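REQUEST FORM: STRUCTURE PREDICTION
Request ID: SP-0412
Submitted by: Lab K.M.
Chain count: 1
Length (residues): 95
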Amino acid sequence: MNFNEALSAIKNGSLAFRVGWNDRAVVWLKPSCVIKAEWCKDPILKNFAELNGGEIEALSVLCMCISDDNNNKTIVSGWNPTAQDVLADDWIIVE
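STATUS: Completed
RESULT:
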């Protein structure tokens, strides 16, 4: 499928990946939420939340989980597709 079709599925809660990624990455949408200062381990985020009355809104963002050769996983929060990703027709929805 193309990127627009994949993005529509992602917006509806699905995970998606590209065949060209060789099963090493998956993309999903982290929905918006309210973050409370007491939950924060990041001191800068905690400060922003405290300055905002103890909580702050976090907007929706695309995320990616990447696996390396040893199947160790890394999260990319705020993933942005490349031009190749947007133009690709090898997107697949994870069932």
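NOTES: The mean pLDDT is 96.
Reviewed by: T.R.
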